């Protein structure tokens, strides 16, 4: 039986300040299967972003472990975590963080080229993804010439450019109006489900959450069914 793309086992995270330690995660467990899309719905301040950062190997846990395709990865050295993240994980933020001086096509091609993909192949993949997200004809536009919804679609396409097995999204439609949010999310679901990606999506939108395979929340620093 193959290992799940992502498994968090007893993950703990504490933040330190002059007032002492603030425990945020207290033994969180979560498993994502290939092709499964899980909604993470919890109030602000309960640790959603922290959980996503640990799952995405952007932070190290203070206890427990993050397993990526069966490999203990959360406590590896920074360069090893970076290599796994680049090869395996895509991340989408609420704000797109596109590079303003580059076109939509270039924003999607650059991460591929950083991973060793030839320029021509990277640009072809970028154009295919832009077409999948309804952005044919916008390849040469810089972010400032795109609408908010178009920018977020480019950001999602960029996250999928290196064919990750895991997609982590932190309020990916939280900065969009309702109609645009629905369109962008539908395109995200189609692309992720169509390629068997394991996805964890933090959202405050209950309608979007109900369209995913299951919903979890954070309670007292642990992941529980919502």
TrEMBL record:
The keyword ATP-binding applies. Residues 6-226 form the ABC transporter domain. It comes from the Bacteria. Keywords: ATP-binding, Hydrolase, Lipoprotein, Nucleotide-binding, Transport. Signal peptide: none annotated. InterPro entries: AAA+_ATPase, ABC_transporter-like_ATP-bd, ABC_transporter-like_CS, ABC_transpr_LolD-like, MacB-like_ATP-bd, P-loop_NTPase. GO terms for cellular component: plasma membrane. Its EC number is 3.6.3.-. One of its GO terms (biological process) is lipoprotein localization to outer membrane. The keyword Glycoprotein does not apply. GO terms for molecular function: ATP binding; ATP hydrolysis activity; transmembrane transporter activity. Belongs to the ABC transporter superfamily. This is Lipoprotein-releasing system ATP-binding protein. It comes from Neoroseomonas alkaliterrae.
